[in-house]
């Protein structure tokens, strides 16, 4: 695989700010940086909508624990879509995955899909907290429920963030039918390149500028 250049990597990036203490000024700076860096989108918390930007806006849902009811996640997604979100990054009920209840995982995703049918739906499975078998089952449930992407991590779980192993397994499971987003702990150009090599076609980054600086123009 040919190493992508800076512009190509930038177009894979959801430039992200999800800290609870983030202010409207912080988000305005995020948008300005994202536009300057040529990223694909900006990713923010739903309370920050609507945003003034030419970039697609991604918004998290059921974040970060995933322990919200289907109805609450669906309502959150619907409101975000109404306020201009082009993409929704939802967190599954990780406990349901641990319990082996993948019908519940699928129903949760399907509720959000139905509530926001016109957005790009990314499903955060929190891969570092799952076994390989659970990762595969969650990816399959996501596909059955109509998701567009599967995503490794929130970046907030103590088990950790993205790994090349998880990305590779996710890509093997969904093939080219769904996208794979790697996020959580990707702080260096080397880590970003490793995720892309493993099969990620979207990256969630907060330190975007320093990561992009490591790629050739």
From TrEMBL:
GO BP annotations listed: 2-deoxyribose 1-phosphate catabolic process; carbohydrate catabolic process; deoxyribonucleotide catabolic process
Pathway named in the protein's UniProt entry: Carbohydrate degradation; 2-deoxy-D-ribose 1-phosphate degradation; D-glyceraldehyde 3-phosphate and acetaldehyde from 2-deoxy-alpha-D-ribose 1-phosphate: step 2/2
Catalyzed chemical reaction(s): 2-deoxy-D-ribose 5-phosphate = D-glyceraldehyde 3-phosphate + acetaldehyde
Pfam families: DeoC
Gene3D superfamilies, A to Z: Aldolase class I
Family: Belongs to the DeoC/FbaB aldolase family. DeoC type 1 subfamily.
Protein name listed in UniProt: Deoxyribose-phosphate aldolase
Originating gene: deoC
């Amino acid at each position: 695989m040919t190493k992508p250049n800076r512009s190509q990597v930038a177009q894979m990036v959801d430039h992200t700010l999800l800290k609870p203490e983030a202010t409207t000024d912080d988000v305005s700076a995020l948008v300005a940086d994202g536009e300057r860096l040529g990223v694909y989108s900006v990713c923010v918390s739903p309370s920050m909508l609507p945003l003034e930007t030419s970039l697609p806006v991604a918004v998290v849902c059921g974040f970060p624990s995933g322990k919200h009811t289907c109805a609450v996640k669906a309502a959150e997604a619907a409101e975000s879509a109404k306020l201009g979100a082009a993409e929704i990054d939802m967190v599954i009920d990780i406990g349901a995955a641990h319990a082996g209840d993948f019908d519940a995982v699928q129903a949760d995703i399907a509720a959000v899909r139905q509530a926001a049918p016109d957005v790009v739906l990314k499903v955060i499975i929190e891969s570092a907290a799952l076994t390989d078998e659970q990762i595969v089952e969650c990816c399959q449930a996501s596909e059955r429920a109509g998701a567009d992407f599967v995503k490794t991590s929130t970046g907030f779980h103590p088990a950790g963030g993205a790994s090349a192993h998880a990305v590779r397994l996710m890509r093997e499971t969904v093939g080219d039918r769904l996208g794979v987003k790697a996020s959580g702990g990707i702080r260096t150009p080397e880590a970003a390149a490793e995720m892309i090599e493993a099969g990620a076609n979207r990256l969630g980054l907060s330190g975007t500028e320093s990561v992009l600086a490591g790629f050739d123009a």
